[in-house]
Amino acid sequence: MDVERKSGRSFVRARAVLVAGSLGLLLAVGGCGASGDSMDSGAKAADGKAAPREGFSDEDGGAAASAAPEEQADGKAAGKKAAPKPGGTHVIRTATLSVEVKSVPKAVAAARGAAEGAGGLVASENTERLDDTYETSHLVLRVPQERFQEVLRELAGSGKLLSRTSNAKDVTDQVVDVESRISTQRASVARVRELMDQAEKISDVVALEGELSSRQSDLESLLAQQASLKDRTSLATITLDLTPPDAPGDDGSKDEDPGFLDALGGGWDAFVTMLRWIAVAFGAAFPFLLTAALAVVVWRVLRKRKAARGAAPVVTTAPAGKDGASAP
C-alpha cells in the first residue's frame, strides 16, 4: 500500500511538472508574438509619421507644425478633393485657318452652320468689302473639344486651304491647383464666419469683417479663374479667314510688269493729285494774300496823297529897282 501511494504521488508530481512546462511554453510563444506585433505596429506608425515629411523643406515643416489642427485637417481634405482623376486631362485647343473660297457669303453661312451644328457658336464675325466685287470675312468659332477635329476638317475642305496652324496646351495642373485653392479658401471663409458668430466685442467683429471681405474677394477671383479655364477647356477656338480668288492685292503680277496704260494712268493720277494740292495750298493762303493786297493798295493811296501835298506851288517876289519899281 505504501508503495502504491508513493508511486501515485510521483505520477501526480510528474504530471503537474508537465502541465506547468506546457503552460510556460505557451506563454513564451504568446509573448514573442505580441512583441513582434507591437514592433510591426511601431514601425508602421513611424513610417506613417515620416512619410508626409518627404518632399517638404525645413521651413515648410516648421510652418506645418505651427499651423492650427483645423487648418491642417482642412488642407488634407482639400488635397484629397483636388487629386486628379485618372485620365481627367484639361487641354486648351486653338486653330487658325485661311481658306480661299468662290463665294464668301456662302462660305460664312456654311462655317456658321458647321459650328452651330457641332454644338458651338460664332464668337465674332467681321466682313469687309474691298470693292463692288470682292469681300473678305474673319470669323472666330467656338466648338466643343470632342468635335474640334471634325469641324476643322470641314472648314479646311470648304475651299482652297492657304494656311493652317493648330495648338494644344495642357492646363491640368493649373485646373487642379485652382480647385484646391478654392476648397481651402471656402473652408477659410467658413471658419471666419464661425468666429464672427462667436465674437462678442465690437472690435473683434470689425476685424473679422475685414478679414472676411478679403478672403471672399480672393475666393471670387479664384472662381473667376476656374470659370475661364472651364470655358477654354470645354470649347476650342477656331479663327477662320475667308478670301475670294483673284482678290485685289492677292496677285502681284500686274504690279511687276506695268504697261503704257498703267504708266499713263499713274502719271494722270499724279498730275491730278498735284493740282489738288496746289488748289488746297492756294485756298489756305488766299486770306493772307487778300490781306496783303489790301495793305499794298492802302499804302499806295497814302503815298500818292503825301506826294501831292509836297508838290504845291511856291510864290516868290523879284528885287526892287532904283526908282522903287520892281524889275520886270
TrEMBL record:
The DUF4349 domain sits at 90-300
Under Pfam families, the record lists: DUF4349
What are the boundaries of the region Disordered?
35-89
Renumbered to this chain, the Basic and acidic residues biased-composition regions fall at 46-56
Q: Which UniProt keywords apply?
A: Membrane, Transmembrane, Transmembrane helix
For this protein, the parts annotated as crossing the membrane are: 277-299
* Superkingdom per UniProt: Bacteria
Protein name per its UniProtKB record: DUF4349 domain-containing protein
Q: What is the lineage of its organism?
A: Bacteria, Bacillati, Actinomycetota, Actinomycetes, Kitasatosporales
